[in-house]
Amino acid sequence: MADSWVNSAESLGADLHLELTGPGSRRAVLMRALRDAVRSGRLAPGTRLPPYRSLAADLGIARNTVADAYAELVAEGWLTARQGSGTRVAQQVAPIAPAPRRRTPARAHRPVYDLVQGKPDPSVFPRAAWLASARRALSAAPHEAFGPGDPRGRVELREALAGYLARVRGVRTTPERIVLCSGAAHALRLMAAVAGGRWAVESYGLPFHRGLLAGEGVATRPIGVDEHGALVEELAGEDVVLLTPAHQFPTGGPLRPERRAAVVDWARSSGALVLEDDYDGEFRYDRQPVGAVQSLDPDRVVLMGSVSKSLSPTLRIGWMVLPERLADDVVEAKGEREQWSSATEQLTLADFIVSGAYDRHVRKMRQRYRRRRDQLVSVLAERAPQVRVTGIAAGLHAVLELPPGTERAVVKAAAWQGLAVEGLADYRHPGLPANERDGLVANGRDGLVANGRDSLAAHARDGLVVGYATPPEHAYAAALDTLCRALPLD
Amino acid sequence: MADSWVNSAESLGADLHLELTGPGSRRAVLMRALRDAVRSGRLAPGTRLPPYRSLAADLGIARNTVADAYAELVAEGWLTARQGSGTRVAQQVAPIAPAPRRRTPARAHRPVYDLVQGKPDPSVFPRAAWLASARRALSAAPHEAFGPGDPRGRVELREALAGYLARVRGVRTTPERIVLCSGAAHALRLMAAVAGGRWAVESYGLPFHRGLLAGEGVATRPIGVDEHGALVEELAGEDVVLLTPAHQFPTGGPLRPERRAAVVDWARSSGALVLEDDYDGEFRYDRQPVGAVQSLDPDRVVLMGSVSKSLSPTLRIGWMVLPERLADDVVEAKGEREQWSSATEQLTLADFIVSGAYDRHVRKMRQRYRRRRDQLVSVLAERAPQVRVTGIAAGLHAVLELPPGTERAVVKAAAWQGLAVEGLADYRHPGLPANERDGLVANGRDGLVANGRDSLAAHARDGLVVGYATPPEHAYAAALDTLCRALPLD
Which of the residues A201, A238, B233, B240 has the least number of beta carbons within 10 Å of its own beta carbon? Predict the structure, then answer.
């Protein structure tokens, strides 16, 4: 059965041809068809699927479409991928429900309230201050700023960032070791190009990042997380570990000091890299920000950050702080000239930082988001005291723990009341946090056993990820009210 | 000999390991080492090289680095690549000189004058008008403009472009069929993802584009060009042809009307796509602009353009005008959210177009570049009457024909006098414009015989590509003077 993909693929191809003429995006149609084939038993557990290039050629569709569909179905647990043995139908498919693909809930019309994490309130973009910076930056820019750009990015911004990140995040670097990019996704693509191989990731994280890495040919193995961040002792022979040390995403714990030291030791002794996703490092409410792990060893840790959370995802400006030996490789992977970020925006951001406007904006937003968090906590304490709220010391979201088995129902209930919000399941890695390098990829909650450890992954807790930054000010109270009405009563 | 790559690769790996510890970028070191191995005969003609993934793993370096090095060496003629038979050492390496890799000449220090094509004069960026548009755009933008962006790009800019391109380039489209991107390189990557397979390209073109396509797994076969553009009758079973119909790049001819009709007929009858690179369509001097081929059949032609020539390469804004059936695939390949172009820049450009500032700027630049072209032609007529100048009816560059065999010496002489300028050889495709689909890839000028046809490719003429847009106004006369001193006297 295991290697019958040629026959399966042929019948698959014929079926899919029919379905692909139907409505909907090709990726969505292909995913639906593959799920149906697995559900119906037409593709048995363990069956090897054709390489995505072959299937794409058979179907006459883009290779990326098939690769993305495979990656999504791996993330959803329908398929498994192991280096060297291809993509196969998972052994146990039945227990897992496919993660919702779109960020909008199942309800047909657009939600009224949005508590999906990941987006700062777009109504507070500092338009006047940004324009003032643009005016100063464009007036002061040398002529060459309007010619082809250095792929490292504008030196004015790299200098501003080196100073800012040292002051605010404790980062140790120089402008020469900073490479600008268009955001975290771009940074991950570049790192996959220069440091491909085996990566470890946290067992909870952005499915978008996992899918992107799979598309770049990087296999990810999950390590567990608990309330003190990632279980770095589960790291084995990986080349890279992708971590969110300041504020584990999305479960919320900051990486405990001894684990920060341990992961750097691991990287030093094994020659590996730590990739530190510092996505919301500026937003910490109840005590001083935790410094970047990068400061412990600038030669072993790559820090990536952006203005997507602090200012706006619309600007498409991010940065990588690199070990000296990697900076040239990343620039090479990026290309001979700047092909991505606008230099005029880079210059504007440089002025925005140097003039102090960025600090003022972050301070203002920190106060605003802290108020929102406090409001969330107090509304829940009053109306849903049975719900525990975690991960609230920092960031733009919190996690609401739910009774086992209720998460999907709560997300659905919220959607029916016009509230978009996501469950923890959307963020869970479909793989086991096993301590073997070649650990099996499990499917479903029951498989997630972290060696008897009492980790979040082991529990595979039910929970909601509540982004409190997105709603406009006037709609926030009503959004929280709707959230409370969707929560279970006990 | 032909399949001895395993042994070769092993010795290669050992040698390369040593060299890769030396100074310089890894790609450059790898390319140098491979050239040396070919030159010394250690890698014999026809020898198959290891797949780039294997070599990258052996050497412990990024796959992209090896893939890029292979692609560059194919472009330089040291290696050949054929789908299905891998990358091999070329049969005739001796006669060809490696194309200069860097845009700077061999001289150690920075050139004083720059006549390398491809860059508009950076000193004429319309800073005040751009800032005025930014102010209007940011004031008028809805809040959602500062949230995560639609991967199609801002509708305001797509609407502005649909109108502008219809008026100026005769393009027939709707905003829904326009997808914004960060420039031509991004557009090519997206097209490679959704329409991979066999591509035909013009036998003269940007080596950067060829290298990029090779990196995306797209094999390109060259078709000849003459003074009336590409010899489209040489198209065979390709899936896509990449053309520069308005102004063949870099040789300069506009595609003759009957060839415009023929290539669209070919695409219709074979189900193929025409990819129209409209890189400088606005700059035509002696008569009305030639409309876009896209207008002949919007379902068969993809038009790609950008502001890189008309305004500045620094803004990173380009567009694709797509057949309806491809628009969704391209958006899927681009990603779920806008990851690349800044929405604030897109909104600013939309205002810049709608307010008429873009037309005014293009008109002003057209006058300026026409004056520069006239000055080039008259200086040459006076001081180097033996040199024929072609491709001058449009664009930001001209081609100076040189006596056979003199091109490299002239480029070198120019470099020694502090003038950066490129020869036609930098743009020549290393492949034969043969009429067989699986045409051999030849190496060197003598191999370029286009079936007895009297095409530019057949002649493999010597020439200089002179970009007259780049120097600042005050330095232009001196740059032309230096150019004349580097030219042969008869």
Answer: B233
